[in-house]
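Quick sanity check, Alcohol dehydrogenase GroES domain protein:
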Amino acid sequence: MRAMVYRGPYRVRVEEKDVPRIEHPNDAIVRVTLAAICGSDLHLYHGLMPDTRVGTTFGHEFIGVVESVGSSVQSLVPGDRVMVPFNISCGSCFYCARGMLSNCHNVNPNATAVGGIYGYSHTAGGYDGGQAEYVRVPFADVGPTLIPEWMHDEDAVLLTDATATGYFGAQLGEIREGDVVVVFGAGPVGLVAARSAWLMGAGRVIVVDHLDYRLEKARTFAQTETVNFAEHDDVVVHLKRITDHLGADVAIDSVGAEADGNFRQHVTGAKLKLQGGSAVALNWAIDSVRKGATISVMGAYGPIPNSVKFGDAVNKGLTLRMNQCPVKRQWPRLFEHVRNGHLTPRDLVTHRIPLEHIAEGYHIFSSKLDDCLKPLIVPTPA
């Protein structure tokens, strides 16, 4: 089969790999019909995530058709159209039993640090991802779900991570009616978080970024106010000024490891890899909210320490909430929001790229060329 293959930082290409096979009675093999490149895939592409091995296939957002199933699989049959959450979960461990599907203890040798994720380095279990023609799906009775007949494929693929994660980010903010919510980052996750904040009762939503085309999308997709941090000497002071000098009630960090806006953080985090990414967006969130506020962290950071203003968070009495999104737990409510037109994830799609051209897709997305916001990958026959 044809699959995206990692060859080192900033180097990916399409190669022939063996079609995955059933390795356990609980496995399914899925023929991928649509995948996506996630902003967090760029952390792998840029060489920021430890133990990203040459030969790995990325891709944790994908949908497809079941090709075959193991002897123990009961909920799927060949021919089923399925959407697959980016988390790999056993469904029965201490964490899965409590709905913490992203923290499963049985799917990753490094499970004390992180659960299993498709195509996200050996730190997250070493599973190949869905930027390929076929993918092996472990615990097939737990994760995959049939795609509803009424659902558009592009909505379905974005529900496997970006949409669910953005919605979860707003949930973690514990937004109350009338709250002022600041979202750092106008990528797909941040835009969904901003739109979801309205659904949860926010009275005012402000999105912060430095790319004008993404801020324009925030205004049209999520109907928010916007702030271009590059236009202000100190974005924290500006955010304080426009929120009655108190600060927002809730901040959502949807940027993570590669945040721009602070030279020292960017060089030590994103370039020299001396910390687990640039924490500038998180520090802006800590400094700009009011005392007693809640901060939700959705951005992906590496496993090594970060330079975070923890003392300021303590002294302000902030609540910091964070986790990888337990995707499948969000689906029942998100299905209703999509069906009722409250959320249309496919409005975020800007590029549809054949698998054969995926290297160009990574380059366009990484360099923010052509107003790229969300690229989808369309597998093509060999």
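Posting the structure with no commentary besides this: Residues 2-161+326-378 form a domain with the Quinone Oxidoreductase; Chain A, domain 1 fold (CATH 3.90.180.10).
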